[in-house]
Amino acid sequence: MLLKDNNKNNLFLFISMEKIILATTSPRRHFLAEMMGLDFKIAPSNYEEDMTLNLKPKELVLKFSYGKALDVSKKYKKGFVIGIDTIVVFKNKNIGKPKSYQEAFKMLKSFSGKKQQVYSGVTIINCKTKEVIKDCEITDVYFKKLTDSEIKNYLKTGEYKDKAGGYGIQGLGSILITKVDGCYFNVVGFPIQNIYKNLNKIGYNVFSGKKWKS
What we know:
Layout (H helix, E strand, L loop, with lengths): L1 E4 L4 E4 L6 E3 L4 H10 L3 E3 L14 H17 L6 E11 L2 E3 L5 H11 L3 E12 L5 E12 L4 H9 L20 E5 L2 H5 L3 H11 L7 H4 L1
Parallel strand pairs: 3-4, 3-5
Antiparallel strand pairs: 1-2, 5-6, 5-7, 7-8, 8-9
């Protein structure tokens, strides 16, 4: 598909009629991809993350996002595969999903009045050309001073389950946060600006999606 830039009188070739392939089962990421107007399909990755690796947070999320994207890309001859991996880092330790109410309480109490960082590795692979783009987004998240009562009331909602760090910033968990320095959507697990930037680099025009043509 050819699009003309009337300001510069140049022609640009976009191959964005090809599908985006999301290597994730996360409903939150699917929702944000729809919000961006991406024409996508879902293809879960079978890549297994090894959390025992002694890597820095940035290296870890880049490795995992690439592993997910590469695994899925092998199944397609065309399209753009997006692999994403997100971790929460607090006091130089990777914070995963709490396995129990007690663990979630302990996590949130330790976050009280402090800052943590959210790292997302983003890998995009053009299945046709085999071109690969890897990037990392980092966001600082600041917590308010939390009382035990506030933590317990929040945990009663059950929102903490299946969420890294034991809270969901896109939901009621936002009341625990005083400030976000960086990309908010990165904390949700889908750094929109980063993905937009790198899709452009690899030849996909976000504005060619069906949502923006209606």
